[in-house]
Amino acid sequence: MQKKIKEILITVLETLLITGVTVFTVLPVSCRINETGIHVLGGDYSPPKLEEVIVFDESTLRLIFSKKVSMSARVFMVGDFNKDSFEVGVDVCYSNCEEQTDTTVDVRFEDQMHVGTDYEIIGTVKDETGNTTTFLVPFVGFNSRVPLMVMTEVQTESVSSQNAAEKAGNFWRNEFVEFLVLSDGNLSGLEFESAYDGIERKFKFPAIEVHKGEIFVLHLRKRGEGCFSESGDDLNLASSSYCSKDVRDLWVITEETALGNKTDVLVLRNSFNGSVIDCLMYRESKLTEWNEKYLGLVEECYESGIYSSDDDEFIGKTDGMTATKTLNRLDAKELLLKVQNGFIFEGPVVMGKDNWNISAANPGTL
User: Fold this and answer.
1) Which among 210, 163, 304 has a CA at the least distance from the CA of 218?
2) Do 47 and 132 form a contact (C-beta atoms < 8 A)?
3) What single-letter DSSP state applies at residue 98?
4) Contact indicator for 110, 91 with CB cutoff of 8 Å
5) Which residues contact 252 (CB under 8 A, 6 or more apart)?
6) Residue 70: which H helix or E strand, with range?
7) Where are the alpha helices (DSSP H) in the chain?
8) Residue 137: helix, strand or coil by DSSP?
9) Per-residue DSSP letters for 172-185?
10) What percent of the chain has pLDDT over 70?
11) Mean pLDDT across the stretch 160-187?
């Protein structure tokens, strides 16, 4: 009997020993045992973080994490008010579809994304020590036809006064940016950002087909009557001030003031690859340096090659700017003529010296 009990005890002890060795082998911690018990000295208990989401191409969504992970995910095409959302087929690939886990995970679509369509990815990732993170991220279908455009007129101030006709119709003259389209394409994926307003107020363009030579106006404040975005073929829906017949008008949905009156940096960016399509830096002549608020977008402008020099002559001057005048691009008509004559622009248009002046507002007409 005693022999049998001894054999059982030995078996139990061996099991405990093996279990203990196994546990301490897989646990990502170091321990110290003393009179008061076990003290944990370190270990990785932090879950993986989703650091970046990139709509990489027509069939690939790329996710970058803080550490190596494995992932399970589902992707849904988000319906509008009349349609339900539905799942689309995808495959999860690691290290550009090599058979291993890494910090970069590609989600490959069985069919190409629809340009400008809203999607959501819902997923769970797990790191090598078992920490998990669940996430939901909205994104927009990839657009390979982002058009080249330039800013041609900028109204930096909202006009508080109105003429009799404007007062009668409750029409207001609000801040705007006029654009000239230099190549055919779709606006989906383009975003407009002002350093003065901050990244949280950047405007994301809707999926609209545009054509080279087209002029359109982005109104930066929706105040008063007649503020209708013309996203379809009818370009005469909007009737507010600063609207022109047969010129596309788009509206930012906010009543807050926009843009720096005398100093700002404006950037038009391709959100899919981060490239700068166009930018404008303006300030008063008495200012010779940018303060910290503007430096991030200033750096983007120089890195894009649009500003070939930090010479002050390349920066738009706002001396004498009033609420009834705008910054106008002097080479706008020349650029339009080039497009009409079949010239093909290969990249962003380089800014010339003294390329902007101040004159009466005239949106929709170069």
Assistant:
1) 210
2) yes
3) B
4) yes
5) 203, 218, 219, 220, 221, 222, 258
6) strand 60-77
7) 2-26, 164-169, 292-304, 332-340
8) strand
9) -B--EEEEEE-S-E
10) 84
11) 90
Taking alpha carbons only, the member of 246, 63, 53, 211 closest to residue 139 is 53
Taking the C-alpha atoms of residue 27 and residue 9, their distance in angstroms, rounded to an integer, is 27
Q: With 60 as the cut, is the pLDDT of residue 56 above it?
A: yes
Question: Which of 90-99, 171-180, 200-209, 343-352 is predicted with the least confidence, judged by mean pLDDT?
Answer: 90-99
Indicate the helix (H) or strand (E) that contains 169: helix 164-169
Residue 95's identity, in one-letter code, is S
The two structure tokens encoding residue 198:
């901050």
Say which amino acid occupies 235.
L
CA distance 133 to 122: 11
Which two tokens mark 135?
Answer: 């996430």
d(CA 89, CA 276): 32
Average of pLDDT values for 283-296? 94
Question: Using CA atoms in the order 330, 334, 335, 341, what is the torsion angle rounded to 10 degrees?
Answer: 170
Cα separation of 233 and 301, whole Å?
33
| Segment among 81-95, 102-116, 250-264, 335-349 with least mean pLDDT | 81-95
Q: For 130, how many CA atoms within 13 A lie in the half-sphere containing its CB?
A: 4
Structure-block tokens of residue 119? 């999607």
The DSSP bridge pattern shows strands 185-186 and 248-251 to be unpaired
**In this structure, what DSSP letter does residue 159 have?**
B
- At 37, the pLDDT band (50, 70, 90 cuts) reads low
Three-state SS at 225: coil
- pTM for the model stands at 0.83
pLDDT higher than threshold 90 for residue 291: yes
- 57-to-54, 86, 139, 144 alpha-carbon distances in Å: 9, 21, 13, 8
Residues 151 and 188: their CA atoms lie apart, in Å, by 17
Q: pLDDT tier at 163 (50, 70, 90 boundaries)?
A: confident
* Average pLDDT over all residues of the chain: 87
Cα–Cα distance for residue pair 297/311, rounded to 1 Å: 17
C-alpha separations of 175 from 21, 34, 115, 215, 298 in Å: 70, 70, 29, 17, 21
